[in-house]
Amino acid sequence: MRTGNLFVLSGPSGAGKGTLIGLLLKRLEGAWLSVSATTRAPREGEVDGVSYLFVSDDRFDEMVAQDRLLEWAQVHDHRYGTPRDLVERHIAAGDQVFLEIDVQGALQVRSKFPAAHLVFIAPPSMEELERRLRGRGTDSEESIRLRLANAEGEIRLKEEYDECFVNDDVDACLASLIAYVERFSEKKEEDRL
Questions:
Q1: Where does this protein hold ATP (predicted)?
Q2: Which residues are annotated as a binding site?
């Protein structure tokens, strides 16, 4: 049986992480995206347990106190965290597990799970990132300014990651990401032979 791996994808809001992961999940057999717990309210169309695990502040506090989160972070006025047991269960089953999380959380995962592969998804430029954020039409001007300011700090931390892909062409970036993931799944297979 194939041994699973943990891949952590981070990058600024608007870099295209969600698009890339959505495509990757359709093309890569045995890929599983972890669902984060969050204290924020659901947005229109989001489903509890599918989009996120929507929890109260008190429930989130319990999860932290019981060390039931692989990582957690305060992001844009809300808390997000990765349930440890689900990730460990999928890795043990041989899945390639993906976390789409903030850089704060990624660095926590690195400290708790050193075998994790950290991948940073970068925009081609700050100008393009701003264009993408404005084009979504979902954020207020204040939110866009906050996301752009946060992006500068996040991009400075990309050197902490094992790999960085610039998402200037979705298909090319996806191909590079899949090749990177497959390299580690093949290595695990070879090690078992």
A1: 11-18
A2: 11-18
